[in-house]
TrEMBL record:
Source organism of this protein record: Flavobacterium pokkalii
Keyword terms: Aminotransferase, Pyridoxal phosphate, Transferase
Chain segments annotated as transmembrane: none
Keyword Membrane: no
Family designation: Belongs to the DegT/DnrJ/EryC1 family.
PANTHER family, per the entry: DTDP-4-AMINO-4,6-DIDEOXYGALACTOSE TRANSAMINASE, TRANSAMINASE
Protein name: Pyridoxal phosphate-dependent aminotransferase
Keyword 4Fe-4S: no
InterPro entries given in the database record: DegT/StrS_aminotransferase, PyrdxlP-dep_Trfase, PyrdxlP-dep_Trfase_major, PyrdxlP-dep_Trfase_small
Molecular function terms from GO: transaminase activity
Lineage of source species: Bacteria, Pseudomonadati, Bacteroidota, Flavobacteriia, Flavobacteriales
One Pfam family it belongs to: DegT_DnrJ_EryC1
Domain of life of the organism encoding this protein: Bacteria
Amino acid sequence: MANKRIFLSLSQQSGWEQEYVQQALETHWITSGGPNVDAFEEGLENYFGNEKFVTALNSGTSAIHLALILLGVKAGDEVICQSLTFSASANPILYQGATPVFVDSESDTGNICPTALAAAIEDRIAKGKKPKAIIAVHLYGMPYKVQEIHSIAAKYEIPIIEDAAEALGSSYKGRSCGTLGTLGVLSFNGNKMITTSAGGALLSDSKVLKEKAIFYATQSREATVHYEHRQIGYNYRMSNICAGIGLGQLKVLDANITKRRENHLFYKSLFETIEAAELFEVPHADFISNYWLNTILVKTNTEKKRSREALRLAFEKANIESRPFWKPMHLQPVFSDYPYYGKKVAEDLFEKGLCLPSGSHLTEEDKNRIKEVIVDFFK
Ligand SMILES: *Cc1c(COP(=O)(O)O)cnc(C)c1O
């Protein structure tokens, strides 16, 4: 194909990544942990106004797993999880031998539905088990209904694991996503707001929790010269090489957020006149999305051969990547045995939802090609 491929979400480099990686190599800090890791954590802590303690890990998935461990989730416990999300939100529940309880979305933000959440908690308590934690997700950068969800969590005294893997740079009522829950999770996977190639972070409220997270992430080694272990540990610490990339990436974080929000304005003006599709936008001024990915719902029209999949194929024909919404967890074969609360909102979003190219690198030329496909498809 003559046209170069437009990807869904490519990372943008600052040029500093190589310097920090080079330094790590030259000083033989080629291991997990090290000066780049400390500096990366400090950089993130500064970004969050030094409100939180940040533990850098080798993935967002590890961060969710450690969050469950820090909250004392054990085999046989139940953990509530937003159904419409990436599988990494839910998998660690099973690593702990706990049971996921999936909850539907509401249609304003696509995130966990307050009504379904309250119903799920009530019913699980009635059945004899109070859920140990709630995993709520800011999907595609869109904040969930923080006030409603957190007041339900507070009422039943259930801690929140805030999955902000896609929401670095988003905020709710002026407060950064990632800092709102009992524990917060970030991801620096290849296509997230910033990348360390692979990486993640856990945000907590105290130095004690940060040190505990590091303890578990480095094989639960007791403070002895011989390696003494009283608990099962994990190899979850971020590598000093990856953190070097992260330090370079911190320099473009603000620029990436600005760029992604500009991409949103491009889509907003494009879809203003298109009735057959609906662009996801923040429901209220309290919500600020980084618009990590711009998402639309395509109204199915069999006569005009319009569907989410038809649009995806039209993009593909033009060598442009787009992607269906995450398939809800309660519809996944691997999770089919677990309880689900709600109606069919998540299912409906999955059927109609498409993620559009939204990278921090999108050029004017890319936008023109994207526009051409969309205008032609909906004409
Ligand atoms: C990317 C992602 C994660 C996990 O992050 P990794 O760093 O890939 O392990 C968790 N939750 C959501 C919603 C994500 O998009």
